[in-house]
């Protein structure tokens, strides 16, 4: 195998981010595009998906998906 062929084989391998996204898609039975939307904040996983993600990552739902507090004080 040539130097260039080895390089091209390496380029075809998924990145760590792609592997992570596919892992989450697999454990939640969702498409990778859905996981990307969760990561970008355009969508939020439902509670069952959050539980599966937490289990797969050996974490808790509370740690992975903290409730955001909104400032209710209005400036005068």
Work out the oligomeric state of the chains in this entry: single chain
Strand tally? 0
Integer-rounded radius of gyration? 18 Å
Query: Which structural class do the helices and strands define?
Result: mainly alpha
Distance between the termini: 70 Å
Descriptors:
single chain, 76 residues, mainly alpha, 5 helices, 0% strand, elongated
How is this structure best described in words?
The longest helix has 13 residues, at 16-28. By secondary structure, the protein is mainly alpha-helical. It is elongated. It starts with a helix and ends in a 12-residue tail after the last helix. The protein has 5 helices and no strands.
What are the SSEs and their pairings?
Blueprint: H1 3-11, H2 16-28, H3 32-40, H4 47-56, H5 61-64
Helix pairs in contact: 2-3
């Amino acid at each position: 195998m040539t130097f260039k062929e080895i390089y091209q084989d390496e380029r075809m391998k998924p990145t760590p981010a792609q592997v992570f996204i596919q892992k989450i898609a697999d454990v939640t039975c969702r498409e990778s595009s859905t996981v990307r939307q969760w990561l970008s904040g355009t969508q939020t996983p439902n509670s069952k998906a959050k539980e599966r993600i937490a289990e797969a990552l050996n974490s808790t739902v509370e740690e992975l998906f903290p409730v955001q507090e909104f400032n209710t004080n209005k400036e005068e």
